[in-house]
Amino acid sequence: MKTIVGYTDRLSVMPGETLHFMVSCEADVATYRADIVRFGSTDDNPWGRGFLEHPVDAEVNREYPARRQETEIGSYMDAGCNPTFDALESFSIQAMIWPTLIEAREQAMLSRWSECEQRGFALYVNRSGELALKLGDGSAIHDLPSGKVLRERAWYAVTASFDAVTGKASLSQTPVVAESGVDDAADLTSDARLVPDHTGLRVLVGAWGTHSGSEAASAHFNGRIDSPRLACRVLNASERSALWYLPLRHDLHGSVVAAWDFGRDQQSKRVQDASANRLDGILHNLPARGVTGWRWDGTEQDYRRSPDHYSAIHFHDDDVSDAGWSCDFAWQLPDDLPSGVYAARLHDGNDDEHVVFFVRPVAGKTRSRIAFLASTATYLAYANDRLFDEFTGYEVELGTAWTFGPEDLYLAEHRELGSSTYHAHRDASPIFYSSARRPMLNIRPRSVLWTFNGDMMVLDWLEACGYEFDVITDEDLHREGVSLLTPYRVVLTGGHPEYASRQMLDALDSFTGSGGRLMYLGGNGFVHCVAFHPEQPGLLERRWVHGAPRSASLPGPGEAYYHFTGEFGGRWRRLGRPESRLTGLDFCTSGFDTGAPYRRSAESFEPSVSWVFDGVAEEVFGDFGLAGGGGAAGQEVDWHLGGPDYPSGVTVLASSENHTWIMQQDASNENLGTRNAREHHADMVIFERPNCGAVFSVGSISWPQSLSFNFYDNDVSRITRNVLDRFHK
Amino acid sequence: MTTNESKIDPNRLDLVEEFRQAPVGHHSPDLQALLRVLRAEPEDGKHAVYCIKPYHQWALARVWVKDGRRTIEVDWNTMFDSREAAEWEVFRRRWERFTGADLGDVGPPPRRDRTDPKVLYGRM
């Protein structure tokens, strides 16, 4: 059982930089041991060298006090405890809300409340699903429920006020669109019989505070909040109506304490207060932005062009952008530390954990003309993939029984570590973001041969074959562009570089167009568009604009634009950047039962390309593989369809054959063209690019998982070696 | 137990033997149809495999659903030293769940050497 987990403050780091390690230990032990290691191989398969980690002499290698660290999940906006709020005696609060998960728990929309001390005020949804106003003075509570259950995914104007002179509290709940036969409007007043004590408390939107002086929040709201407002007196109906709109009507400035504008500066964590007080709020745990608000009417699709239509934020009680743990130790990487894939190996006496990070070379200090591009965009998109959450149905596509591991058991018990972008929030809305600042249990050695651990087969093979190489990551490429690749003659990918930002594609196009050589050793690569956060490392956005697989959710109408960058999201083919232009292949289909071998094409015997197969005796090769047994072509495969979306001069070297019925059952494949699903297969291609650039693509996720067979002495290894040796000359 | 029950012919022991010989891979159309039914086993109590040690040790598992949340229960008393044997046990238990018929003394699939290129390792 897993009892120790951790994470670093970033995935990619350079020699000379300092990396921070956060660790949580659940075992009842006093200390744990940490040691820095560099990976040779991350897998125990019996074909190659086995699991192999090289010790690194580091001053941080020692025992540390063990402690359990708590993760605060759930998003909200914090406007602080400014003295302006303390001056409030009478007040009005209002917001537009769109609840998405009515359940038997309290959810706060706008609060200045301490749950521990039971004082302050809060506009919230009560356990019965009704709007309610809560007032407390620390010894008594006045609770005013609307008595009308809110509908999920319907907009409501909600207002509340307290009159310190009369002691009256009021509440109104008004649907923006009234449904016939639905009684969900309320407008009532009561005698509060107390004066709420809210001194020194924080004003939060989307949650309330647990106790004064604490940063913690609870009662997180699931749903959208739009146009939250706070005024220092009881407003009349006319004034309340005027307050929905910005800029504020000038006669209201004297009464409005805060009017947060969720529609503007969407890329910032800071939310502007449009009132004269400038009581800006700070967003915690990255709620969803670039989402439609109560005014959205379908006439605009881009949140940047019509901020008033996108003046909502979607809060979730399971948002997590930063686990927020305290640092256990920090390590300044030595200046001469070689590039590679590293980890802090943690041991608490019960369990071993590896906190993985990637060490890239300092500019100008590359040690090889070969670079391995670690697909960190894809690792992030799949981070904490909760396969057990989509148990139903998917097994038919897998073609095998579901197989779980210790990390699945741990994730099932630790919802606070978040999910991947292949899942939905608890309220069934899509998960747009993935953060590296949390333990990611599938970016680990000995994990499933998918993404990280599958890719590390290439790293193992490079080292076993004696190649020197550097390791760089997707995010490095995104931020630095082609200059990162310029020192290299050859760039190799892993088995599944599915996700790419526009900047990554631009850099790879430029690299291969100016003499660089790309070895795409995978399948389903460069297919989907992602956006990296412009400022915070390790933060990724992904929206399933063109169809959602598995248990992922589609973004809502009008929500196709990424909030990090303003780009239209989705599949690169639909965005005018088909993967075939870079790789010479198109994603074909998937099937996870077993693989298949390749058969050489007639063209592969032409002298211009036959060198790829030097030493390969058979026309059919690669009938072995760790991925389900059976072959080097499997899991997800790409094919070459030809046409205007392909570079010229592509030679199909080999094609896989004899796939099972699992891979041939997908009749909905949008890349099928005029072909039949029975023809699904992988193609291996090679082609030249301008200025002596070249691309070699294998079109199969399983390819790297065949490299180690027979201790690296096999045809898949031989072909890969032939191409690498030729490419890096 | 479900409407799918009627789709399984408990007399088709030839399909049982076909699966036993090759739990994953090429299957006849009739076995494909059978597997589609078995794999659509109700989610609450659905059989699965737990990988204790990659490439070496597996256990039978079941998934339970309560209040919309899934939990994984590992049967530590039913362990296997090959993925093929684990796949077979899941099949056998589902067969019995759907048909009520015990497969009795039918043994696990033939054992492959761990370095066999066709050995089943995948953990997806």
Structural summary, described in words:
The complex is a heterodimer of chains A (729) and B (124). Chain A has a 16-stranded antiparallel beta sheet that branches. Chain A has a nine-stranded mixed beta sheet with strand order 31-28-32-34-45-44-43-40-41, with helices on both faces. Chain A has 729 residues and is mainly beta. Chain A folds into three domains: 4-64 and 325-356, Immunoglobulin-like, CATH 2.60.40; 76-315, Jelly Rolls (Sandwich), CATH 2.60.120.200; 371-727, Class I glutamine amidotransferase (GATase) domain (Rossmann fold, 3-Layer(aba) Sandwich), CATH 3.40.50. The two termini of chain A are 48 Å apart. In chain A, 11% of the residues lie in helices and 32% in strands. Chain A contains ten helices and 45 strands. The longest helix of chain A has 13 residues, at 452-464. Chain A is elongated. In chain B, a hairpin with a 2-residue loop joins strand 2 (57-66) and strand 3. In chain B, strands 1-2-3 form a three-stranded antiparallel beta sheet, covered by helices on one side. Chain B has one domain (3-99). The model of chain B has no long low-confidence stretch (mean pLDDT 86). Chain B has 124 residues and is an alpha+beta fold. Chain B is 30% helix and 24% strand. Chain A binds chain B through residues 43-47, 388-389, 391-393, 395-396, 398-405, 408-409, 412, 446, 448-450, 592-594, 623-630, 635, 658, 660-661, 709, and chain B through 23-27, 32, 35-36, 39-40, 43, 46-51, 53-56, 58, 61, 63, 70-72, 74, 83, 86-87, 90, 114-124.
